Amino acid sequence: MHRVLAIIPAYNEEESLRTTVEELKAVAPDIDFIVVNDGSADDTAGICHRNGYPIIDLPVNGGLTVGFQTGMKYAHRKGYDAAVQFDADGQHMPQCLHNMIDEMDRTDVDIVIGSRFVDEKKDFSARMIGSRLISGIIRLTTGRKISDPTSGLRLFNRIMIKQFASDSMLNPEPESIAYLIRKGARVSEVQVAMREREAGESYLSLSKSVAYMVRACTSILFLQWFRS
């Protein structure tokens, strides 16, 4: 694998973006990156322009799906061999990326998920109970065990880049992983460590977290069976 792109969707991440990007550049200088500024109201765009970071400026906030799809369209047009979803908030650690790339090279899979739970067990917090539920539903509907379905650290090969660039129904969420598995995508997981976000607040409040779990489970169990 020769050319890998880190897609960094960013919405109001002025407090953590520069640290995230500089760490990525220092630890994995061979991996290109693009910041997708998702209509931020803060200085996210200014930080990119002042520091010379490659950036796509979206005029309004479209959400994570729009930001990620924009990055995948860019990766497809530029001919990248793989693209990795990489958070702007400092949770994802670039030290894990080469292990994920090596796994894709070694096993020739389509998707590599950076998982917190290959070698470690989940706790019994409300969030992890939701993760267990989604894992169980994915296994029920696909026959494939995914230990960390809500991980946002995912590496996609050239075939998957083209899929995401051309199919607006796909999103960077567990339901799309389940859908792609049913369509024949090969998925692997490697153990990674993740940090708490360095600054700002997660868009997932308690109510939004519950709604997220309900939507993901409903989509995997019912809605995606009606997709062509």
From TrEMBL:
GO terms for molecular function: glycosyltransferase activity. Residues 7-162 form the Glycosyltransferase 2-like domain. The keyword Transferase applies. Keywords: Glycosyltransferase, Transferase. It holds the Pfam family Glycos_transf_2. The keyword Transferase applies. InterPro entries: Glyco_trans_2-like, Glycosyltransferase_2, Nucleotide-diphossugar_trans. It comes from the Bacteria. Its EC number is 2.4.-.-. Belongs to the glycosyltransferase 2 family. This is Glycosyltransferase, group 2 family protein. It comes from Collinsella stercoris DSM 13279.
